[in-house]
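Sequence in, structure out.
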Amino acid sequence: MTRVVLVRPWVDARAGGGCCGGEVSDGVCLEGTHDTEAVASDPVGEAYRRLRAALPDVDVQVVDAGNTAWLLPSTFRAVRRRAGVAAGLRAAVGSTTAGAVLVDGDRVGDLGDLGPDGVVAAVQRALAATG
């Protein structure tokens, strides 16, 4: 199964955001009210939703750039199987770049540069190139 990883860009996270939860600019609701959902203001969430809709058979993951304990070995293993140790090491080093879009370990773009629609197009191009 193909795996797409969206490495969350650095944000000004506050209490309640978590490592992969994104920005929580209004803080945590403590009075029993619920903040409105931030649909369009989160490019990672929007890219995730569009990828899931366009490519339902693809495993899409959102990972914090600081999660090197997962990113480095998973990227290395995915690329090493196809392209060898040196390529796996190069891919692993680039995998922790905030905003990276990875398809089976290969970096296909940057979320900030591509935007949600561009992420879907870049992933589709990468999948078409691999057959």
